[in-house]
Amino acid sequence: MTMLLLLLYTSFLLALLGLSFHRTHLMLILICVEGMMLTLYLTTTTFISSLNIPMIAILPILLLAMSACEASTGLALLVATSRTHGVDHMKSFSLLKC
After folding, report:
1. CA 90 vs CA 3, 18, 27, 29, 78: distances in Å
2. Any idea which fold 2-82 has?
3. What are the residues whose beta carbons fall under 8 Å from the beta carbon of 52, sequence distance 6 or more?
4. Is 83 exposed, middle or buried, given 0-12, 13-18 or 19+ CB atoms closer than 10 A?
5. Rounded to 5 degrees, what angle do the CA atoms 90, 13, 18 make?
């Protein structure tokens, strides 16, 4: 159990480091955020299966639903910005122009 949690923590940390260091494209940011959400889903599923508490068994399903909503919103933003700006480079975006 400890080795599994160590792997989940390191995968979350790698996704977080990827998010902080590779912010060149919007698609890379979305992939890193999705990796973080899937790691959180696996971590909550592991904790709930080890605790055997039926009251909080709905939490991984809610987290997965929120992850799907986040992914669809991110892809909609990706399509909208690539149509208006032509590229998905983060350096070409300016919040003051919007």
Report:
1. 37, 15, 10, 10, 11
2. Helix Hairpins (1.10.287)
3. none
4. exposed
5. 25
Report residue 35 as tokens: 């990796």
pTM greater than 0.85 (yes/no): no
Quickly list DSSP for 34-47: HHHHHHHHHHHHHH
Residues in CB range of 34: below 8 A, 6 or more apart: 67, 70, 71
Q: Whole-angstrom Cα distance, residue 71 to residue 25?
A: 15
pLDDT digits (tens, 9 = 90+) for 17-66: 998 887 788 888 889 999 999 999 999 988 888 888 878 888 888 998 99
